[in-house]
Amino acid sequence: MAAAAALAGPLLAQPARGQRPAREAVIERWNRMTPEEREQALARLPPERRRLIERRLEAFRDLTPEQQRRFRRFNALPPERQGEIRSVYRRFRELPAERRRSMLREMRALRGLPGDERRRRLESEEIRQRFSAEERKMLSDLADVFDEVSGTEPKPASPPPDPDR
Questions:
Q1: pTM of the entire structure?
Q2: Domain residue spans of the chain
């Protein structure tokens, strides 16, 4: 998720004046080009812009197929939702390294829980003692974001045992 979110902001297509914003990431257009078309297009760019595009293409190619899929799903979200996700991720990155590590461990555990269990875990005394209210909100938001860009829904709760059995 982090790699996709980090790439997402700078790779979104910028619309020309008077045009509606493009929903496609610039990286997707470059990746669809043949090597010859890409080289010709890059040759027309100023050197600094060319280097920037080349670095971003390389970074995208270095992503795993799953990360590339998440990146594409992120770019398919409405711009407002993308902004909300970037905001959560930015707040997370601003945390001290040790807090980020603690939150990452907990986030991995939360992602594996059904929705109602996730909510109970976030409201548990253990989590209240380990994380501030802001960190708990961030954990919840980040787990939801992961589900959203991964194309998964929180796991459904296990059905209650049948009392007649």
A1: 0.62
A2: 2-13+25-76, 81-150
